[in-house]
Amino acid sequence: MTFFDKVVYSKTTSVRIFRHIIFWSADCVSNLVVLSADTEIKTPVIINRICVIPLIALVTYTLIYYLLPGFFRDKNRLKLLVGIVILILFVGYGIRYYRLFIVYPIIDPTHVLPANVWSFSHVYKEVFRWMPGISLAVAIKMMKNKTEIQEKAEQLAEEKKAAELAFLKAQMHPHFLFNTLNTLYSYSLQNDGKSEQVVLHLSNLMRYILEECDHRVIPIEKEIKVISDYFELKKLRHGTRLDIDFQIELKKSRAFISPLLMLPIIENSFKHTLSSARGLIHITVRIKTENKFIHLFVENDLLPADQSYSSRGLGIANVKRQLALLYGRNYSLHIKNDNGKYAVDLKVPVMNEYE
Q1: What is the DSSP letter of 350?
Q2: What three-state secondary structure class fits 260?
Q3: pLDDT tens digit string along 110-151?
């Protein structure tokens, strides 16, 4: 936020008072500059203008802090119209009386009143003499209100997005823990010495879920590391029947991604093939950064009986929701399930550390 924004949008009392003093001082000076084009500016004229500022400020603040908020809250047009008419009459008659019959007799007793002091033309000029300052103050207040409403709406949207993402990730956590604990249980029964490796990779997964998933973005290397731990757990359980072709190509340094975005897609590729297929299982995973995008490609064998499962799994559904929340329409996700293969091709923009 710039210094100008801090001054304009600050809620601090001292800054707000300073801001209003600057505005009305500038309004007074601009009035005198315009007036100096036709007449000579003397000290009584300056004092007269300064003395009128409190009344003009009162009219302005009544309009922007009472009448306009009441209109937008209650939609009472009649109340707003009556209020504006009263303020106009006050400016035209009240301020004119104050200037000519109270202020001038004190500061300049020799001042001569104009002829027909209460004629329509004089009152009309009185109103429009002060209208630019009032109108400018109202315009500034309306613009500030609009900006503050937009910022509040964006903040609420961000909070809603963060809450929904946290909910989606929370849905996934028990799923991963359930799978890995089952793997650990099976090796503890076999007592073949591999349970220690399962515990190591499981602890890495748990640390990732407990520590990294609270962050909005993480370095892509951390997501790749947890994917590697997940692969190792699967290899320990399924042995040589599992053939994983895992390739990484990171051309962009310091690339960030939302945590737990790629892993559910990869986990989904294991779920159906390993549970129903027999023999050797081929799974291909490619992760690379190119230009300003992160590209994930996952392909696995698809049995004829599974041709209809497509993208209805919990993991893919959650990923789609996360993608919509994080990137809007600025991503591409293509899913194919033909020729005995199920493939997911995902491309998302690279996020930065402070996003």
Answers
A1: P
A2: coil
A3: 888 888 889 988 898 889 889 889 999 999 888 888 888 888
Give dist(CA 25, CA 50) in Å, integer. 9
pLDDT tens, position by position, 166-180: 656 665 666 666 766
Which amino acid belongs to residue 275?
A: S
In terms of Cα–Cα distance, which of 148, 154, 99 is closest to 123? 99
Question: Strands, DSSP E only, in 306-349?
Answer: 332-338, 341-349
Is residue 323 within 8 Å of 311, Cβ to Cβ? no
Is 160-349 assigned to CATH 3.30.950.10? no
Between CA 130 and CA 67 the distance in angstroms is 19
For strands 293-301 and 281-290, give the pairing. Answer: antiparallel
Pinpoint the alpha helices (H) of 191-219. Answer: 195-207
Residues 6+ apart with CB under 8 A from 27: 53, 56, 132, 133, 136
207 Cβ contact list (under 8 Å, min separation 6): none
Domain ranges of the chain: 3-153, 160-349
CB-based contact 344:205 (threshold 8 Å):
no
